[in-house]
Every structure is written in C-alpha cells, then in structure tokens.
Amino acid sequence: MNHPEQYRGRQVVVLGLAKSGVQVAKSLHHYGALVTVNDRKTREESPEASELEALGISVVCGGHPDGLISSSVELVVKNPGIPYSAPPVVQALELGIDVVTEVEVAYHLSQAPIIGITGSNGKTTTTTWIGNMLNAAGLNPIVAGNIGTPLCEAAEQSVEENWLVAELSSFQLKGTKDFKPKVAVLLNVAETHLDYHGSMEDYVASKTKLFANQTADDIAVVNWDDPVCRELVPHLKARLIPFSMTEELRIEGVFVTPSYISEVDDELERTVVYRDKDGHIKPIITVEEIGLLGRFNVGNAMAAIAASIAAGAESERLTEPLRTFKGVEHRLEFVEVKHKVAYYNNSKATNGKATINALGALNKPIVLIAGGLDRGSDYMELLPAFEKKVKAVVALGQTKEKIAKVAQLAGLTDIVIVDNVDSAASTLRKAILQAAELASPGDIVLLSPACASWDMFSSYEERGRIFKEAVHTL
C-alpha cells in the first residue's frame, strides 16, 4: 500500500452517503480515522446510516449542521457530484482543509498499480475493454470506479500482482492531490459538464490532473487526433504512447494503416497496428474485425490497446478480446427489430459529440430521439450530422425547442416536439411511438439524447431501460 497509515487518528468528514461515500467511510474507519458522514437526506431516506453506525462511524443526516466543519477536521472527502459551492466544502477550503474525492483515498490504499481512464466520451467502453484485454493477457485486472465497484473497495482488495483499472470522471479528478496512475489514458475532450465546472478551462484542468503527478517512469496514453489532448503533449512528464486514426505515427504508438484521411475511402481495408519503441510495427486487428460499431469505437479500441501494452500485455493476446467484445449497456446498444425497423439505445450520449459519434456509426436512415437537461448549449454542433445522417427528429425534455431548431436548420421536415405528459416514462414512450410512425422499413430509430437525463429521469440508465422496455412492447 502507498500510505494508509496517514489516516490513523485523523478527523475526517465524508460528504454524501452514496455508494462511494459509504465505502470510503468504511475504509477510512478501518485504517483508524475518526469518521463522520454527513448527508442532506433525512435519516428515513438513508438506509446506509445504520450499517455505518454499527461499525462505530458517526452519521449526521438531514442537512449540514453548524460545527460539522471546524479547525479540528483534517480532511474532507466529498461525493464527486457535490458542488464546490456547497457550504461545508466552502467552509473547509476557507479553513485550509484538504477537500478530496474517493479517488485520492483509493490511491493511498491500493497495492496495485493503477490505470486511470478519462475523457468526455468512451470511458466505460474503453475501461471494460482494457479489463478484458488484461484478463486475456493474464495480468489480473480489477475494474472499478465510475463503472461500478467503488475504487476504495477495489483498492483494499488489490495486491501488487493486480492492475487497478479505474474509470474516472472530471468530478472525481478535480478532487485529487497526490493521485498518480501508472498508466493515464485521456480519450478525448468535448464541451460538457459546464454547469458543474463553470468554464471549459476548469473542465480541462480537472481532466488533465490525471497526468499531474506522473514521472518518466509512468505512461501517458493520449488521443493524437484531439486538439486539446495534443496540446498537452509538450507538458507531459511521462512516457508518451499516443493513438491516431488519421496519422501514421513515427513514434511509439497505436494507429490505423492506411489512415482515415477522409470519409470517402471507407472501402479500404485498414489494420490497427502498434509501433514499438524500436520502430517495429506489429499488426493487431483489422478495423472490420473490431466487435463494436463506429469509427469512435476504433479510437476506444486503440486507446485500450495502448494502455494494455503499457501494462505489459503481449500484442498478440489482444486480438480476441477486441473481436469478441460487444459493448456496454446504453452505449449504441442494439435493442430489437420491430416491424422491420431497428431500434438502438444510446442513452449514455449526454453531450453532442457522443450523439454525433453514434450517428456516424450507423449507415441507414435514422429517426433520432433527442433532448434532455438544458446545460446552456445551442447544439449547433449537431447540424452537419443532422444534414448527413438524420431523416426525422423527435425532440423532448428541456432542450426540445433547441434540438428542433437545429433540425429545421438542417432542412428536415419531419420534426416532432413531444410535450411532457403525466410522467417521464410516459413522455418517452410517446416519443417512441412518434418515432415509430416516422420510420419506414429498413430505417433505424435511435435514442441518442445529446443531453443529460436529470430533467426527467434519475439517470441515463433509467432513461435507457425505459426506452428498451417500451420498444419491446411496440
């Protein structure tokens, strides 16, 4: 372990009783910290409280009481979603108390080296793929983070022979101080979460904290084709392994040959290859063999290849998991064919770039269901994709008028705006029925909202599940 003894005897406040908060409280208590957990929810809404109190952990529910944060508190660990404007966070920072997320604690508890994966889109797919590849290579991965298992739980289970493969959000990374992954993967950067970060500068700075503490003994995997990622390269201290779909790399890295230099030469057979430190090129897999649809998933595959090789996997062990992986729920997930129309669930598309990627992956006329939480975007980035790939749009949620306006500018005539009915589920079902009416045999109906779900649903998962249930009953 790195430094778990640093928590013994320290007074720590954990903000938030979500799954990661419960686990970090247990871990800190196990290593001797004096832990108080606080949540705005009432005691009746917090069934986890009894479990923690049975361990001797103090739990305060129903708000943030006076005196929760004082000069005697030495560390605050907050749920990533809690804003930095929350009163206890503001008080802690004013007192000079470190405010971190679970990622920081897990780093100090883990015996295993860490592969950290972040990006605006593709994190879960790439993280899962890396786990599959390291399994195939016999390298004993533990996959955790945003993907499901709390990082602290995985860190406590880890041994030196493992690799801790961690999906990390900008919310989590913003609250890190010493965190240093052995392999850091930055997939891409697109405008999103600005309601939380306040500016694109803060969002990018949070993402790039992934590399902040790396040294020449570590590895940085970055998207050579993404302008924001590319700008970071001169500032990286770690060994660089880039990946590119558009350029034949002359340095160590993963690329496609012949490269994707335009969208009109898609008939060419392409191969994903790795150029090692000595300049030798090792073919991995043809693009056509990769198990997931979409050019963007070729990028995810290349990132996973680079990270797996950086962790010690032999390149020839990676082909089979690249070929057989069929994706993660709610990410361009095929649902069913109904009345000769194919339905796809891409509920995880919570920003415009994710929807553009999904549209680009499908080669039939598309009836798009889009809209959701309004974070201030005008969605004009969708215009070229709407012009090229979409035959009709069904818009719902807070952004329905904005989505419809982009569709009108794209020259679409089949545009339906769905007003809210008695429940979010009923509204989405109404949108699906409208989409089904607009679709012809051979078309695709795609749920790819380009927006977060919280205006109507508790999560993108709930939105996607309701979509799939409704499709099955058409």
UniProtKB/TrEMBL annotation:
Family as reported in the entry's similarity comment: Belongs to the MurCDEF family.
GO molecular function: ATP binding; UDP-N-acetylmuramoylalanine-D-glutamate ligase activity
HAMAP family: MurD (MF_00639)
Reactions catalysed: UDP-N-acetyl-alpha-D-muramoyl-L-alanine + D-glutamate + ATP = UDP-N-acetyl-alpha-D-muramoyl-L-alanyl-D-glutamate + ADP + phosphate + H(+)
Top-level taxon of origin: Bacteria
Identification of the protein by name: UDP-N-acetylmuramoylalanine--D-glutamate ligase
EC number: 6.3.2.9
Domain Mur ligase central: 117-307
Keyword Transmembrane helix in annotation: no
Example GO biological process: cell division
This protein's GO CC annotations: cytoplasm
Location in or out of the cell: Cytoplasm
Annotated residues for binding of ATP: 119-125
Domain Mur ligase C-terminal: 330-451
Keywords: ATP-binding, Cell cycle, Cell division, Cell shape, Cell wall biogenesis/degradation, Cytoplasm, Ligase, Nucleotide-binding, Peptidoglycan synthesis
The protein's role, per its UniProt record: Cell wall formation. Catalyzes the addition of glutamate to the nucleotide precursor UDP-N-acetylmuramoyl-L-alanine (UMA).
Pathway: Cell wall biogenesis; peptidoglycan biosynthesis
